[in-house]
# Entry
Amino acid sequence: MPPAFSFSNREIDEMFTYHDDPAKVPHYQAVNEAAKEFFRTIQEHCPASPDRSAAFRMVREARMTANAAIALDGKF
# Structure
C-alpha cells in the first residue's frame, strides 16, 4: 500500500535547508515571545509534575513548528 502522503526530493531539500530571511525575523520574534510567556505561565501556575514537563516540551515543539511554518512560508 502506498504511503498516504509523500514528498518530492525538491520538497525534502526545501524542508531541510536553512532559510535566512531578515524580513521574517519579526515573525520569529513574535512566536518566540509568546512561547516564552506561555512557558513562564506554566512554570508559575502548574505544580512540578510529569504533566508540567510534558507541557514544557509541547511549548518548545509548538515554537519550533511555528518557526518552521514561517521559514517555509506555510508550504508543508
